[in-house]
Design a protein that fits this description.
With 250 residues, this protein is an alpha/beta fold. The chain has one domain: Rossmann fold (3-Layer(aba) Sandwich). 43% of the residues lie in helices and 18% in strands. The chain is built from 8 helices and 7 strands, in the order βαβαβαβαβαβαααβ. Strands 3-2-1-4-5-6-7 form a 7-stranded parallel beta sheet, sandwiched between helices. The chain starts with a strand and ends in a 6-residue tail after the last strand. It binds NADPH dihydro-nicotinamide-adenine-dinucleotide phosphate (NDP). NADPH dihydro-nicotinamide-adenine-dinucleotide phosphate binds next to α1 and α6.
Length: 250
Amino acid sequence: MSIALVTGGSRGLGRDMALKLAQSGHDVLLTYVSNAGAAETVVSEITALGRRAHALPLDVADAQAFPAFFETVRAALRSVFDAERFDYLVNNAGVGLNTPFQETTVEDFDLMMNVHLKSAFFLTQGALELLNNGGGVVNISSGLTRFSYPGYDAYATMKGGVETLTKYMAKSLGARGIRVNVLAPGAIETDFNSGAVRDTPDLNQALAAQTALGRVGVPEDVGGVVAFLCSDEARWITGTRIEASGGMFL
Ligand code: NDP
């Protein structure tokens, strides 16, 4: 039995990751920050696949609360999954910020840092006690670390940090057989940034025109890559960045 913990599993990319992990045979713990109903829907979808699932609230911007969160994880592992530990952590939860460099405030920067970078660092650190040897961590970055796009200065800077952190964590945790990789999606149609990619036809078409495969992404383009990285087929892959962008801005 294998158990995966997906942050931000209630919607968008995290929802598809949770479903693909379940289809690949994992039981799934997923988190949400405010949409308990959406999270419970995903739990029901996973249960319908014949796997166990449970949703827990978590604000990834609040690192001080992580020890208390892991106590709720410990309790859920025992009560729902009949387990003491889990196998894979997917650091996916996040919000965007599209603000020009000149107008980005200290508060904007801190939010991006807390949500994306500090959370990947301290949530993973906090998980170590409950993570099985031989398991893995998947961090979610963005194509925006490889190319620049106006307004993503603070956001992409944090994702760049997540990519560097991935290499360091892969080295630090390799002795336990824990593999750490980073997946960088391109533009995907989700609620992210108020659904900008999905709901703004001009933006959608402009990005599609800059993408080798001729369209922007949908969540179903990405979740299976996470399931692969959390499988034995990926057992020799660690410290690696994989981009799933359909070839954006090549
Ligand atoms: P969505 O807005 O569709 O979903 C965001 C998810 O994260 C929800 O489950 C939400 O929970 C959760 N979440 C948001 N803020 C917090 C928080 N402070 N603490 C805990 N959970 C939180 O976004 P996507 O699925 O598109 O994005 C997922 C990841 O993918 C992010 O890290 C994003 O940076 C990255 N990404 C997205 C791209 C895109 O084009 N969509 C491209 C490249 C990377 P709730 O439902 O409760 O609000």
